[in-house]
Amino acid sequence: MKSFDFYAPTYFVFGRGRENDTGKYIKKFGGSRVMIVYGGQSAKRSGLLDRIYNSLKESGLYATELGGVKPNPRSGLVYEGIELARNEKIDFILAVGGGSVIDTAKAIAMGTVYDGDFWDFYSGKVPDSALPVGTVLTIAASGSEGSPDSIITNEKTLEKTAAEADCIRPKFSVMNPELTESLSPYQTACGVTDIISHAFERYFTNTPDVETTDRLLEGIVLAMLHEGRRVMEDPSNYEARANIMWAGMVCHNDIMGADRQQDWNSHHLEHVLSALYDCTHGAGLAVIMPAWMDYCVEHSDGLRFAQMATRIFGCQMDYNDPKRTARAGVEAFRNFLKSIGMPLSFEEIGASANDIDKLVEMNNIGEGKTGGFVALDKAAIKEIYEIAANIR
Amino acid sequence: MKSFDFYAPTYFVFGRGRENDTGKYIKKFGGSRVMIVYGGQSAKRSGLLDRIYNSLKESGLYATELGGVKPNPRSGLVYEGIELARNEKIDFILAVGGGSVIDTAKAIAMGTVYDGDFWDFYSGKVPDSALPVGTVLTIAASGSEGSPDSIITNEKTLEKTAAEADCIRPKFSVMNPELTESLSPYQTACGVTDIISHAFERYFTNTPDVETTDRLLEGIVLAMLHEGRRVMEDPSNYEARANIMWAGMVCHNDIMGADRQQDWNSHHLEHVLSALYDCTHGAGLAVIMPAWMDYCVEHSDGLRFAQMATRIFGCQMDYNDPKRTARAGVEAFRNFLKSIGMPLSFEEIGASANDIDKLVEMNNIGEGKTGGFVALDKAAIKEIYEIAANIR
Description:
The structure is a homodimer.
Chain A: E1 4-6, E2 11-14, H1 22-28, E3 33-38, H2 42-45, H3 48-58, E4 62-66, H4 75-87, E5 92-97, H5 99-112, E6 133-137, E7 149-153, E8 160-164, E9 172-175, H6 185-203, H7 211-233, H8 238-252, H9 265-277, H10 281-298, H11 303-311, H12 322-339, H13 356-362, H14 378-390
Parallel strand pairs in A: 2-9, 3-4, 3-5, 5-6, 6-9
Antiparallel strand pairs in A: 7-8
């Protein structure tokens, strides 16, 4: 185990109807002039925004709003939000939505109190402070409701990069699983895939002796295999959605990852896909992560994958040939993804093998290497995209 | 899943030598006049207290101390600590020790800022405020370093009861696994047993549809079976101790229990044992918890125990007779406890079958019932003590 600091002071409010107390929690955490950030029309049509406005009104809070956040959220709206927040003297940002909305809210929160260009924080600078952020979560996927991370796409350069800082951990997050019931089965499955990927990005590590967090990460994936299938069978199953929603937070607030070096190469390779093709992040991960596993099984001793195969997917260990077991584990993972309707190939997400050289360049690693578990150079990244492009 | 609030804002500082930064963290959380609470002479002899004093001095903090906390900590020392804290105008309590020391520190923290008798908080009253508490953990067991709980024994009445409040969650906890290396194998095994019991008190629940946290709790126990055996084979194994230490916190800060009704009857029945015989809490649990399981297997459908047996202890499921599987699971649990040197019988902890009526009365439940998973009346409690008394 590595030495580490861990601090996750978000107040979680979990259960049916809890969004009706949103105003109370904004007040508890010192907000008085609130900007509500949200995505498309569904938050309006469903009546959710009205309920939030009522709750804020009951608590005597001023509110303005910024709608229009899109998946793979763009820098343009962040600049707009920063200007609005300054003009309106906003002191609290409330995100009502999923990861894209929350990440946009976090970017506005940092940018509003910063003299320079907020993009600095997505280019390596760490912010000292930010406006407080709260969330009302409507998609279980990103874990952004409990994390110190935000990912934004620069629409000029198509760079999709992350900022990370304790000051953007949400002060509170309202988690009502009912709010995810309006998602399509495809969006729901993309969320489950994202949650599993957050476990696996931590699970594949070279840090030795991390049995406690290994077992916890395996627990998250095992639960998602069960609840993922259950929610696809019955999209109105509150309990399945509740288990998925809590898992998404626990898995990504880093209580089961702080003790280890983490990989995140699947995310890096996927961010380029969704930046170029605007595919859903979870769908891109379903294509890239198993291809990354195929590559890493062959370029490592394979034992971490054999552990995944036996402990998570119930494969038999082949002690004469652990890589056989490892490959069976990757196959079982692909079969699960397929069973919940996820794409596995370039073709299914509208990506093209002709773009591979461009995709490789967009990873922007020069002649260096990236990642922790198996370090990848440009040739390795190209090979992984080719594996994904050749899946039929 | 139940609706719930979850808020665990403790800052964790994990790794070798991290106690040397204690002063820095006290300052970060606003302390200037510090009372160091500790147990016996080992903290002095080992040089740990000197290192802490140096760290506080480097940060320019005033410090006084209160030593002498004993296992199963008593109310008398709490009164002494409250008086000292008031006289010295203490604004921060630093616990250097295990659960008994931390729980004493929490009691002093509540009592110092309260007009009445601190014991009110152990009789059902919830405190509004407390002095801030920090910890330097030296025993992995109680989880008190990340929990809102404190357990104290009233030395007049021998009542051993708990207080629970968010205001006594530690502001920070320093967790250096090296500090646990001076513990005897017996004390180490008692800690592992306590951690497993904190998982099982949550695991055995009637709340349906808690697959995510079930899998996480199973993960904790699986890791403790592995690391518990490993640390007994080699008490100087830092990595095993690190895994045990982090598990003890994660398991008890309630991130994997907030969504469910919990039982805690094994703890209730054990508190009476350790109040009467002053046995180590973990040892009392090793005797009581399997006896409680024996009883509950027969007084439930047994399926939760069959789940434990198959998922944790690798038993085969007998679909014709699930209770057979359940019993095999309890047997496997006893075998594990025995393998790490834990007692299983009344005899081994100096308890006597002749005291059973007294023990039952000390549970103080009148004609009512206690507990969540299988509610116990006096006759049931008597039966469980008898099971434990008859183990040879």
